[in-house]
Design a protein that fits this description.
Blueprint lengths: L1 E6 L26 H5 L2 H16 L1 H12 L6 H4 E4 L5 E6 L4 E5 L6 H20 L8 H14 L5 H6 L8 H17 L4 H16 L12 H20 L1
């Protein structure tokens, strides 16, 4: 069952159903032969960008390490799948298989791959460390969407300026709230009121839950510092 999805900026969601699977049409198909996949350029580009993110992006590296410590080691070939998706989503987390889906037809730039992988790894981290009831409890989904929007870089000022939103004093909170509501509406057939109510009820607690970053990473250097702090915290705990 698709637990969560990352909408593509600027695309409107259609009104829908069925736990979000319609957005990921390749989820239920038989795998293609290796040759057919290799010949498919989108797939190759997706794999190359994914490898680059996992090797060099501090957000992703911190999350991978944190998951390993929580007992959920992520393997590239097992836990990531590059697929064609509906045009309104960039990625999703499939909690039934613990797989992250990367929408190879919608992810066009390395910076977008970095954000989508980070966003979905936050869902995977939440799935690993907490008993998230993705389907029956919309508040659980809301909490993970708030954290993913807050910690993935979805709402850094530069991203928002690119979307022409200026002058908001509580810019981060406003952006996180909006994106969490949009993400819920993308994957669940619930009313806007239901999504807004769920987000508002858990907002403060989940917005302030900064694990495993310890801070809101507003930039790559913030994320690098968070990664260093995380490694040092780990060494300190190992010596206790």
């Amino acid at each position: 069952d698709m637990a969560a999805a990352e909408p593509v900026p600027g695309e409107e969601q259609e009104e829908e159903d069925d736990l979000g699977y319609r957005l990921f049409p390749e989820r239920n198909k038989q795998p293609q032969s290796f040759l057919a996949r290799s010949l498919f350029t989108f797939h190759n580009r997706c794999q190359v960008m994914l490898r680059m993110t996992l090797d060099t992006n501090p957000h992703a590296r911190l999350l991978l390490e944190a998951m390993k410590q929580s007992g959920c080691t992520v393997f590239n070939d097992r836990h990531f799948s590059c697929e064609n998706c509906d045009r309104c989503v960039g990625g999703g987390f499939d909690s039934a298989t613990s797989q992250i889906v990367l929408c190879q037809n919608n992810i066009r730039h390395q910076s977008q791959m970095n954000r989508v992988v980070t966003h979905e790894l936050i869902h995977a981290f939440d799935h690993c460390r907490a008993h998230v009831d993705w389907f029956k409890n919309v508040k659980h989904l809301a909490c993970s969407e708030i954290r993913a929007a807050n910690l993935s870089g979805d709402c850094t000022l530069m991203n928002e300026i690119a979307r022409f939103k200026f002058g908001l004093k509580r810019h981060q909170q406003t952006c996180v709230r909006d994106r969490a509501i949009r993400s819920i509406l993308a994957v669940r057939k619930v009313s806007k009121e239901t999504a807004e109510k769920a987000v508002n009820e858990v907002f403060d607690a989940c917005f302030n839950d900064l694990e495993p970053f310890g801070r809101i990473p507003h930039s790559k250097s913030d994320a690098k510092r968070a990664y260093k702090d995380f490694q040092n915290r780990d060494r300190y705990n190992a010596n206790l």
